[in-house]
Amino acid sequence: MKRAISVLMMLLFIQTALYAAEKNITVTFPAQVEIGQPFLVSIRSESEIDSVTISWQEKECVLTGDNGTFNVLLGTDLKNAGTGTSELRISCSLNGQLLEEKRNIHLITRKYPRENLKVSPEKLTPPASLSERIKREAALGREAIQTNTPGSAPVLPLFKPVPGGYSSVYGKSRYLNGQFKGRHGGLDMRAARGSPIKATSSGTVVLTGDFWFAGKCIYIDHGAGLISFYCHMSKVSKSKGEKVKRGEVIGLSGKSGRVTGPHLHFSVSWRGEFFDPAPLLK
Ligand SMILES: [Zn+2]
Question: Options 3.20.20.80, 3.40.50.1820, 2.40.50.1020, 2.60.40.730; which CATH number does 2-108 get?
Fold first, then answer.
């Protein structure tokens, strides 16, 4: 009998906890998202919640809130994500209890353009003597985009780093001499050499470099897994560890690295997954 009562009590307790959770937490999210496109998730609570952790596509980030509202900007990378239902998990502590909420988001396809280019064969493959350098630089870039500091969604729309139009869009598949060479992971923005480049959102510089592919480049951490990346610059005027404000000049545009002409390549990633920044700049 005693045992039955305690089980009943426990069930009642669990039910109350679930009821409290349902009553106190509102999650706003899109039911359907196109692969490669960004989306916002908002968690709101009337009760005191803290340490909200978001888990999406097997990656996590920690959110800081403002007046009981926790916002995060998420995305999927066209290279890695597949269609179908994907689970968004929200973990937080509410009145001292650990709580997990789950929501389903349906990922659907989107058509991205294709580009055919003809280049001289020696330009297709970098010389073997550079392979160590290229590998080292790629590792630094991979590490930078995995920076994961607690934060919240940036102010939207994002600040446009240069005012020009786009010469290439996100997701474009590139065929060089008929050979598939991958998808474009960002936006190419028209910018004459020496144009000031401005930070898309406030954050902290996590990496700068002068790389063989990217040329002079800078990576900025905006918190909550969001990183912006700017490359082919002629000058980088900020250094690692420096804080930057939204709209602050971070360097000048150029044509450094492996490019044919001056432009700014601008990318945004969540936990290393590059998605289309264009809808966020409008
Ligand atoms: Zn580009």
Answer: 2.60.40.730
CA of 186 to the centre of ligand 1 (A): 6
Q: Output the CA 30–ligand 1 centroid distance in Å.
A: 28
Nearest Cα residue to 145 out of 96, 218, 88, 200:
218
Return the CA Rg of the chain: 22
Residue 79 alpha carbon to ligand 1 centre in Å: 15
pLDDT score for 16: 38
Q: How far is the CA of 170 from the centre of ligand 1 (A)?
A: 8
Against a cut of 0.85, is the pTM above it? yes
Instruction: Answer whether 2-108 and 114-280 agree in fold.
Output: no
Contacts of 260 (CB under 8 A, 6+ apart): none
CB neighbour list of residue 94: distance below 8 Å, 6 or more residues apart: 20, 21, 24, 25, 45, 47, 48, 49
**DSSP label at 113?**
-
**How remote is the CA of residue 40 from the centroid of ligand 1, in Å?**
25
- What is the tens place of the pLDDT at every residue in 176-216? 888 898 999 999 999 999 999 999 999 999 999 999 999 99
Q: What is the pLDDT of residue 125?
A: 79
Domain-wise residue ranges, the chain = 2-108, 114-280
Q: Which pLDDT tens digit goes with each residue over 50-107?
A: 779 999 999 999 999 988 899 999 999 999 999 999 999 999 988 778 889 999 999 9
Q: Ligand 1 centre and the CA of 215: distance in Å?
A: 12
Distance of CA 85 from the midpoint of ligand 1 (Å): 30
**Which CATH architecture fits 114-280?**
Distorted Sandwich (2.70)
